[in-house]
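R.M. (postdoc): so does anyone remember the format we settled on? I'll just put the structure tokens first.
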């Protein structure tokens, strides 16, 4: 069995790295289409001051963000959501959802954000309960 010359290996490494980057960006672009639709309506200019919580699960069709991928901050203006992941941050701009669009989830502790025809579900950790109570006052 003959080994590849070292110059071929040196050329293949950057090619595979570039391929990995392109595939990752392509997947992130496709998966973030629902988030981009929300960002077109509720783009945030800056992060509000407040405690940051990590959502255990966030549903934003067609994507499901798990294990704290979405960070949540409550403020007087609304709910601030952002995805700090390396690939996702290019396509998932931060959101600031006004409180008028926010309801509580019935099945578990979290938020249901509806803006026809889309719906965004943000499950919250239990330690966010007190912070949410400071800002969320249903009509």
């Amino acid at each position: 069995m003959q080994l590849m010359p070292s110059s071929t290996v040196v050329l293949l490494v950057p090619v595979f790295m570039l391929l990995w980057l392109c595939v990752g960006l392509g997947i992130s672009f496709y998966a973030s289409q629902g988030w981009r639709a929300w960002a077109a309506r509720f783009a945030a200019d800056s992060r509000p001051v407040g405690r940051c919580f990590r959502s255990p699960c966030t549903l934003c069709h067609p994507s499901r963000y798990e294990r704290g991928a979405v960070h949540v901050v409550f403020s007087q203006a609304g709910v601030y959501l952002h995805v700090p992941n390396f690939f996702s941050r290019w396509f998932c701009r931060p959101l600031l959802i006004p409180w008028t669009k926010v309801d509580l989830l019935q099945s578990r502790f979290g938020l249901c954000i509806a803006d026809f025809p889309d719906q965004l579900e943000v499950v919250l950790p239990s330690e966010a309960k007190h912070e949410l109570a400071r800002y969320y006052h249903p009509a």
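R.M.: ...and that's the designed sequence above, right after the tokens. Also worth knowing: The first helix runs from residue 6 to 31. Residues 33-135 form a domain with the PH-domain like fold (CATH 2.30.29).
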